[in-house]
Amino acid sequence: MAMSRAVWDDLPRATKQDLKRSAERIGNTVHSLAGPNFTRGSAGVERYAYTPEYARTVAYVQRAFDAIGFRTWEDAVGNFVAQNAPRGTPVVGLGSHLDSVRGGGRWDGTLGVVVALEVCHLLTQYDLDVPVRVISFVEEEGSGFGQLLLGSRIAAGLIDEDDLRSTYRAVDDGRSFWDHAVLAGHQPHRWRECAETLDDLFGWIEIHIEQGRQLEDAGHQIGIVELISGYVQGDIELTGRVDHAGTTPMRLRSDAVAMAAEVVIEAEKLAATAGPDTVATVGEIDVTPGIINVVPGEARLSIDVRGPKDSTVQEVVDGILIAAEQAAARRSGRMSYVERQRVGVTPMSSVVVDALTDSANGYGFEHLKLPSGAAHDTMSVARRAPCGMLFIPCVAGISHAPNEEADPRDAALAAWITLDAIVRLHARSRT
Ligand code: HGY
Ligand code: MN
Ligand code: MN
Question: Is residue 150 very low, low, confident or very high in pLDDT (cuts 50, 70, 90)?
Fold first, then answer.
C-alpha cells in the first residue's frame, strides 16, 4: 500500500501524531476481533447472528463504548446501539456491521464499527458535544439466514412478519429467524419497535473497505460514495429426471446440472454485455442427489444481480430466467424461481457527500468519488435519514476472503475526516 505513505508523510506533525495513535487503536481492535474468541473456524473471520462468537464480539464492543461513557443497548432483534445523548435527541449516526461472510476477512463491516468507536473516543477526548448514535446491524451478510442486510431492513421496515416467522430460515439448521432470535434472548415479537433504532438521525456515515480496486488503482486513500448499486437475489430450481449415469443415453436425459450450466454461462454473458458495473453471480449451486454415478434430477442455483441502474438489473434477471426456462424445456425439464429480496439503487445524500468532501479537502486529502458495487446497511438507513459512505482501499480489492487486508492508517484518515464531517453536519442541523 505504498501510495498511502506519500499522504501520510506529508501530514503536519500534530496531525501525524493523532493519526498514528488512532491507527494503532483501530488496528489493535480490528486484529483483536479477529482472534479465536470472536470467530468460528480458523482462517479469516467467520461470525454471524445469534452465535456465541458473534455475541462475544458485540460484548467486546459494548464494553469499549461503556468505557467512554456511552449508553448501550440492543433492539428487539439484536441490532447493537451506543449513544452519548438522551433518547429522542437528534443525533448523527455512525456504524456498520460486525458479522462476516463465511470464510470472510477481518475488515468488512468491523472497520465501520471500530472507526465509529475511534470517532467517539476522539469526541470524548476533545470534549466535542456532537450527539452520536453508533449502530452495528445484525446479520448484514446473510451468513446465518441467507438474507442480506437483515437487521437494518427490519429497522427500516423493509420486511414483513411472515418473513421473520417462517420464510427466513437458518442455513445451518433450517429453523426460522424467529426461533433463533428467541433462543438468542431477543424479542422478535417486538420487531416493529426496531424502527426506533433509526429515529432522530440528522445524518448517517458508514465507513467501509471499498472491496474493489478503484482506490488502489487511482492511488487514493479515501473514497466518497455517490450511490450504492441496487441488487436482486433469488433462487432458481431446475428439475430434470434422476437416471443411471451409465445406462441412460444422452438423447434421453433430463440433466438438471446441464440446465444449470447453461444458466450460469448465460448469466455471465448477460451481465458482461449489460454495461459497466452491472454484475451477476451464481454463488450457490445445490445438486440432488449429487452422486457421481447418478444423472442429477435437481439443481438449485442462487442468482445475485447488481448494478447502478435498476432497469438494467431487472433486464439481466429477466434474461437469466428466460435462459433457465429454455434450458429446462430443451431437456423436458421444469424451472421455478423464488426471489429472495431486492433493494433498489440508493443514491447518497448530497448534504452528507458535501460534508465529507469539505472535510477531506480541509485535510488536503485527495479523494475519489465512486459508486459502491457492494451492498451496505446504509441502503436501509437511507430510507430514514440522509446518508453517506467513506471507503478506504483494501489490498488488491480482495474482500469476502480470509486474506482481506487494509491499512489502519487509512482507517485513521477516515476517522478524522468523519470527525470533522459530523461536526459540520451537527452545526448544519442546528441552523
Ligand atoms: O454482499 C454484499 O454486498 C455485502 O458485503 N453484504
Ligand atoms: Mn460484505
Ligand atoms: Mn460489509
Answer: very high
**Alpha carbon distance 167, 362 (integer Å):** 48
Question: Rounded to whole angstroms, how far apart are CA atoms 144 and 50?
Answer: 8
3-state secondary structure of 57: helix
For ligand 1, atom 4: residue with the closest CA: 375
CA of 358 to the centre of ligand 1 (A): 28
> pTM value?
0.94
- The residue-averaged pLDDT of 319-342 equals 98
SS3 content of the chain, % helix, strand, coil (to 5): 40, 20, 35
| Contacts of 362 by beta carbon, 8 Å cutoff, 6+ apart | 420
Q: Check residue 90 and give its pLDDT.
A: 98
140 lines ligand 1 (CB under 6 A): yes
Phi-psi label, residue 236: left if phi above 0, alpha if psi -120 to 50, beta otherwise? beta
Atom of ligand 1 nearest to the CA of 141: 6
User: What secondary structure letter does DSSP report for 163?
Assistant: I
Preceding amide of 90 cis, omega within 30: no
